[in-house]
Amino acid sequence: MLLNEFLKEHKTVQELKTIVVKQEAIAAQQQKEIHTLIATVREQSAQIRKVSAQMQLNSAPTIAANR
Length: 67
What we know:
Elements: H1 2-66
């Protein structure tokens, strides 16, 4: 009887270990994706700043001419 209980618990522990390994792999993949997204957002932010600066430079003569 005690051996059967031990074997059931051992099986449960093994299943839980398998779940943990899978979850760790998923977490690692998600971390990579997060880093990729952060890099993309930073790149887009830099591009937006560049375009905004260009627009300001291009609109400055127009504003001066309208005055």
